[in-house]
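Long-time lurker. I teach an intro course on protein structure, and each term I like to show students one example going from raw sequence to a predicted 3D structure in token notation. This year I'd like something fresh instead of my usual example. Would anyone be willing to generate the tokens for the chain below so I can use it in lecture? Attribution to the forum is fine with me.
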Amino acid sequence: MNYKKPQKAVITDAGLASRFLPLTKTIPKGLLPLGSRPIIELVIEECAAAGIKEILLVVSDRSKPLYEHYFTDPAESAYTLLSSQGKLDRFAPVSHVLNDLPEIKLVIQDPSYPYGNGSPIASVKDYIDPDEAFIALWSDDVVFGDSAVKDLLAAFEKHPDALAILGCQEVPHAEIKKYASVDFDPETEILNDLIEKPEPDSAPSDLASYGRYLLTPEIFTYLKPENTGKDNELWLPEMIARLVPTQKVFAKKTSGLWMTTGDPRNYSLALAKHILDSEPFADEFRDFVKNN
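-- Reply from a regular --
Happy to contribute to a lecture. Here you go:
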């Protein structure tokens, strides 16, 4: 069967984010800031710009109240103060969060699943329509410039029989061991293989699969607790690889700049990129870095 075009996106932020401790013992990684907005908001806005209507945000029971507060608190005291000061323009970003984003549903990750990036996807099975594809994103992967979600939707129009489409970009050769390496036919875009965290010399390519996927309910056939793989974790790329023999799994080299924020080094680089692209003090920042 051909699945309907996605209307929902799943964004995952249920991990411990141990590389950011002690900060993330209190604050989930997706709420770390890029400028005055959290990372997760930029990911949601990428979905919204592509026409996604509903967000399923998979979180831990510990972080759910923080996300509820961010997306629903009316910030009445801030509104009252800024109104009295004639500075309501500063409240506009809050109004945007409360009124302009797609519908957001918080889903607690099923604790019966093992560790791994496939588990939060498995946790939304009951929220996905059986005849509709959906988008899946990691909350710590940010795309600057052209929307990767739009690229995936365009690829789905080209390949309407797809059971899965994964976004990919090239990474330095030595870094491919951190990701799933992609082997695909550039002309047909058919995926030949997907190898989770290979050693660089055995990787089929330096194209890395990252946190932008178009999936169908077919994936739930394989996203089961007993299907753990490398490091005894449940890996989404390994489950996508099980669909490869159908010849209906595709890869799309996305056009925007993907940057991960999943560790302090890469988070800092993404923050610098955001400042240089979007902040009014970009020139001052550039001069400071150059002179110090």
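Some talking points for your students: The CA atoms of residues 211 and 230 lie 18 Å apart. The longest strand covers residues 207-215.
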